Amino acid sequence: MARIRVGLLPTASFMVGTLPVPKYADAEKTQFAVDRETQVKLMTITLFFMEEDRAEALKITVPETGLPNGLKPGLPVMPVELFATPWARIFNGSLSDGIAYRADRIDLVTPAPAADAA
């Protein structure tokens, strides 16, 4: 499956939409999903992505160790090493498709200092 690095414009920004929740490996939600290499539990966080004149909500999978303390809705953040993986499957005769997003970590973004109005 193709794994595509997401290139962002300098004007791109992200804001926390929902707090992270565990990602599950099964439909019954009895087994947590883990990173294949590190065995770290995976979490899903919804971020609002804004770039130029568009905005959309993205669900991004992140290792639990890649989440900073103090996350809350509305905080500015930036996903690091963001990749997109297109997927498609047929279930009960219907095609479903989409894009899965994965980041190594989420960094808190500190606002730029305000310019003095002198």
Q: What is the SS-derived class?
A: mainly beta
Helix tally equals 0
Specify the biggest β-sheet: 8 strands, mixed
Strand content: over 45%
Stretches with pLDDT under 50, minimum 5 residues = none
H/E element sequence: EEEEEEEE
State the end-to-end distance: 55 Å
- Judging from the principal axes of the Cα atoms, what is the shape? globular
Number of distinct beta strands: 8
Q: Roughly how many Å is the radius of gyration?
A: 16 Å
> Roughly what is the average pLDDT, rounded to an integer?
91
Write out the strand line-up for the largest beta sheet, numbering strands in chain order.
1-6-7-4-3-2-5-8
Quaternary assembly: single chain
Main features:
118 residues; mainly beta; single chain; 0% helix; 8-stranded mixed sheet
Q: Can you describe what's shown?
A:
It is a single chain. It is globular, with a radius of gyration of 16 Å. It is built from no helices and 8 strands. An 8-stranded mixed sheet has the order 1-6-7-4-3-2-5-8, with no helix packed on it. 0% of the residues lie in helices and 50% in strands. A hairpin with a 2-residue loop joins β3 and β4. The chain has strands spanning 4-5, 13-22, 42-51, 54-63, 76-80, 83-91, 94-102, 105-108. The chain is mainly β.
